[in-house]
Design brief:
The protein contains six helices and seven strands; from the N terminus they run H-E-E-E-H-E-H-E-H-E-E-H-H. The protein folds into two domains: 1-38; 58-194, Glutaredoxin (3-Layer(aba) Sandwich). The strands form two sheets. Strands 5-4-3-6-7 form a five-stranded mixed sheet, with helices on both faces. The chain has a two-stranded antiparallel sheet with strand order 1-2. The protein has 200 residues and is of the alpha/beta class. It has helices at 2-37, 90-105, 120-130, 141-147, 173-185, 190-194, and strands at residues 58-60, 70-72, 79-84, 110-116, 137-139, 154-158, 164-169. 44% of the residues lie in helices and 16% in strands. InterPro entries: MeN_DH_accessory (IPR013478), Redoxin (IPR013740), Thioredoxin-like_sf (IPR036249), Thioredoxin_domain (IPR013766). It is a single-pass membrane protein. Its main location: membrane. This is Methylamine utilization protein MauD. May be specifically involved in the processing, transport, and/or maturation of the MADH beta-subunit.
C-alpha cells in the first residue's frame, strides 16, 4: 500500500514538472511570436540629415543617357522616395516588385528614385535585366555619403517642401510602408508614434 502511494506521488511529481516545462516552453514561444508580429517599421539610424531637416540638394544625371536630370531636396509637387540599392543585394531585388506596386498605387503623391554607386556598365545591365525603366535611376557616391548610408536597402522619404519626412533600413513591404505611415502621422517613425504616452 505504502509502495503504491510512493509510486503515485512520484508519477504525480513527474507530471507536474512536465506541465511546468510545457508552460515555460509555451511562454517562450509566445514571446517569440510577439516579437515577430509586433509593429516593425523601418530601422532609423541616427546618422545623416534628421527627420524634419532640409534634405541635401542634388541635381544628378540619370543612369540612362538622354533622360531628364533628377533634382532632389528642392520643393516639388510630389514627395520623393529615395531608394538606395545595389545590383548584388538580394533583399533589394526582393523589394523591386513592391517598389513597382508603390510606384503605381502612390503615383498621385509620390515619385520613387532609385540610387546607387559603382560602375555604370554593371548598373546598366542590372537596370535592363530587372526592368527598371519605370524609375529614375541615378549613380552618385556623394548622395550616399550625404545621407550616410552604411547598409542596404535604405530609403529616405523627402516631402514636397524638400524636408526629410522619414528614413531607415527597409527589408520588407511593412518597413517600406512604415515610412509612408510616419509621414502621414507627422512623426519621425512608427516606433516614435507608438511610444507616445497613451499609445499601445
Amino acid at each position: 500500500m505504502n509502495q503504491a502511494l510512493i509510486v503515485s506521488n512520484v508519477l504525480l511529481w513527474i507530471a507536474v514538472l512536465a506541465a511546468l516545462a510545457g508552460i515555460f516552453a509555451l511562454a517562450r514561444q509566445i514571446g517569440v511570436l510577439y516579437e515577430r508580429v509586433a509593429p516593425m517599421g523601418a530601422l532609423m539610424l541616427d546618422t545623416g540629415p534628421q527627420v524634419g531637416e532640409a534634405a541635401p540638394v542634388f541635381d544628378l544625371p540619370q543612369l540612362v543617357a538622354g533622360r531628364d536630370r533628377v533634382s532632389l531636396g528642392l520643393p516639388a509637387q510630389k514627395s520623393t522616395l529615395l531608394f538606395f540599392l545595389s545590383p548584388t543585394c538580394p533583399v533589394c531585388k526582393k523589394l523591386l516588385p513592391i517598389l513597382r506596386s508603390a510606384n503605381q498605387s502612390e503615383r498621385d503623391w509620390l515619385r520613387i528614385v532609385l540610387t546607387s554607386d559603382g560602375e555604370q556598365p554593371e548598373h546598366l545591365a542590372f537596370y535592363d535585366k530587372a526592368g527598371l525603366s519605370g524609375f529614375p535611376y541615378v549613380l552618385s557616391r556623394e548622395l550616399g555619403i550625404a545621407w550616410r548610408v552604411a547598409k542596404l536597402p535604405y530609403a529616405v522619404l523627402i516631402d514636397e517642401q524638400g524636408r526629410v519626412a522619414a528614413k531607415g533600413l527597409v527589408n520588407s513591404r511593412e518597413q517600406l510602408e512604415s515610412l509612408f505611415t510616419a509621414k502621414e502621422l507627422g512623426v519621425a517613425s512608427v516606433q516614435d508614434y507608438l511610444e507616445q504616452p497613451g499609445r499601445a
